[in-house]
Write a structure and sequence with these properties.
- With about 100 residues, this protein is mainly alpha-helical.
- It has one domain (about 10-90).
- It contains four helices and no strands.
- Helix 2 (about 30-50) runs antiparallel to helix 3 (about 55-70).
- The longest helix has 21 residues, at about 30-50.
- The protein starts with 11 loop residues before the first helix and ends in a 12-residue tail after the last helix.
- The relative contact order is 0.08.
């Protein structure tokens, strides 16, 4: 068997069962779950950088949703902070590259 030791989507064990693939899983406690969420975010961002597809972007959003839920961050709070940053510093619409400062 291959060792993965990574966070997977909730239905992966059932999928592996349906394919007859032997596997071992466990339920993460809080500290491990938080660590694995951050690892998963990095993993999904790296996959998006290789394959700039909507599927990969959706995976990033799924991890972000899990992080928001874990940290009890509401969509409204995140949007308020985002909008405040846009008002204060702008967005990325103008494609400005800072070469030196």
């Amino acid at each position: 068997m291959t060792v993965y030791n990574k966070l997977v989507r909730d239905l992966i064990p059932e999928y592996l069962d349906s394919k007859g693939v032997p596997h071992k899983t466990h339920i993460a406690e809080d500290a491990e779950y938080w660590l694995k969420l951050k690892e998963k975010l990095g993993e999904e961002v790296a996959e998006f950088q290789k394959d700039e597809s909507r599927d990969e972007l959706a995976d990033i959003l799924e991890v972000i949703d899990a992080i928001k839920k874990y940290k009890n961050y509401s969509d409204e709070d995140i949007l308020e902070i985002k909008n405040a940053k846009v008002a204060d510093r702008g967005a990325f619409d103008k494609r400005i590259i800072l070469e030196e400062s």
